[in-house]
Design a protein that fits this description.
- The chain is an alpha+beta fold.
- Helix content is 38%, strand content 17%.
- A 3-stranded antiparallel sheet has the order 4-3-8, with no helix packed on it.
- A hairpin with a 5-residue loop joins strand 9 and strand 10.
- Helix 4 crosses helix 9 and helix 5 runs antiparallel to helix 10.
- It is flat, with a radius of gyration of 29 Å.
- The relative contact order is 0.07.
């Protein structure tokens, strides 16, 4: 059954508790929730329903940022009317064949991921169409154009493809996984010296921080934060440093939840993976073997204590979370908004207001004035 887009007052974002907040019916009571008008715009509830129930071929277009919301809603209406919608052949293969793009499809085709990605973006080159067609058992015309009306035919092609591979995708998936692991291992070896140098520089910086400049001004678009997670046993201490970017301030519940989740995920496999890429910033040589997590704590006299513990007991050594760095960066926030300008008079009946410089009504929520802005005295 096709997804239905309900464009009535019931699902409109301008429906405020039964009062219309847009268009010709502005500020009037909505008499019939089934009414439709040109000013309709989807509300959050209906958007969440639509987004959660998208057919895969529309979800792929939308979630890979290839279309905007307005185009998505238009395509939903076309799809409900059984109008053919153009698709990408490799997205169809990914969904119908169950092969992950790009790694597993590239493996099935015997080409590099770069070659496949080029074909995905620009279309399959003529010199490769016959080869791709034979290897995927898909007729040539579908590499030139494929729509939603062709999905059932390509589903039939999967049976031929499976027969060609003894009825299983296991070999392709395993080969793709091995090739990806080899690629990652090579990249890690090449980049490790750079990552290690960056880690050492961060450790040197973070260990020297004493007085925090907690900048809670509204001048920056974003801030870089560092939290020291303190481990301790007796007089021996050590830290894991947790970095994150955030536009707000302080250790709120959301940030603390992220930090606690980060600690919860520190199992043997994760620690080993983090150490390969120097992602785990700590001054206690945190490592893991088959069964245990190992680290070294130090006291003020530079004496050390080696500790080996199970994953479930790691958190027993945590005694505190402390923000140690807060650095603002990015373009300063624009403050020249209508509500803060002497030249703006807010309307009592709408979301607009009158600008005495422009001599016209303006939408206060959207205008960021680049000219003629005069701040109010109390700002």
């Amino acid at each position: 059954m096709k997804l239905h887009l309900d464009k009535s007052c019931r699902t409109c974002k301008f429906n405020f508790d039964g009062i219309c907040a847009c268009g010709e019916e502005y500020n009037n009571k909505i008499s019939d929730l089934n009414n439709m008008c040109e000013d309709w715009s989807i509300n959050l509830e209906h958007y969440c329903f639509i987004e959660s129930n998208l057919p895969w071929y529309l979800a792929s277009k939308f979630r890979r940022n290839k279309i905007e919301l307005d185009e998505l809603l238009y395509l939903i209406e076309l799809d409900e009317q059984n109008v053919p919608i153009d698709l990408n052949i490799f997205e169809v293969v990914e969904q119908v064949y169950g092969l992950i793009f790009p790694s597993e499809i590239a493996e099935a085709l015997g080409v590099s991921e770069q070659v496949l990605c080029y074909a995905y973006v620009h279309g399959t080159p003529l010199k490769r169409i016959n080869d791709f067609s034979n290897k995927l058992c898909i007729p040539i015309q579908y590499f030139e154009k494929v729509t939603t009306m062709d999905i059932s035919e390509i589903t039939k092609c999967k049976d031929k493809f499976l027969k060609k591979h003894n009825g299983s995708l296991d070999y392709i998936k395993k080969s793709a996984e091995e090739r990806l692991a080899q690629k990652e291992e090579l990249e890690n070896r090449i980049n490790y010296p750079i990552w290690k140098k960056e880690l050492n520089n961060k450790l040197k910086k973070y260990s020297s921080l004493s007085n925090l400049n907690h900048d809670i001004s509204d001048d920056y678009k974003l801030r870089d934060y560092v939290i020291a997670i303190l481990f301790q046993k007796g007089e021996y201490k050590g830290n894991i440093y947790y970095e994150y970017k955030y536009g707000g301030y302080g250790l709120n519940n959301s940030i603390m939840s992220d930090i606690l989740r980060f600690i919860d995920n520190l199992d043997v496999e994760t620690i080993n993976e983090y150490n390969k890429t120097c992602y785990l910033i700590n001054d206690m040589n945190l490592t893991a073997d088959t069964n245990n997590i190992n680290f070294i704590l130090h006291n003020d006299r530079k004496e050390s204590m080696e500790i080996s513990t199970s994953v479930k007991n790691l958190q027993d050594y945590i005694v505190g979370y402390k923000m140690i760095d807060c650095v603002g960066h990015g373009k300063k926030k624009e403050r020249r908004k209508c509500l803060e300008c002497k030249n703006f008079t807010l309307s009592k009946t709408s979301a607009k207001g009158y600008c005495s410089v422009r001599k016209e009504d303006v939408q206060r929520s959207r205008i960021v004035c680049a000219f003629d802005f005069v701040p109010k005295e109390d700002k």
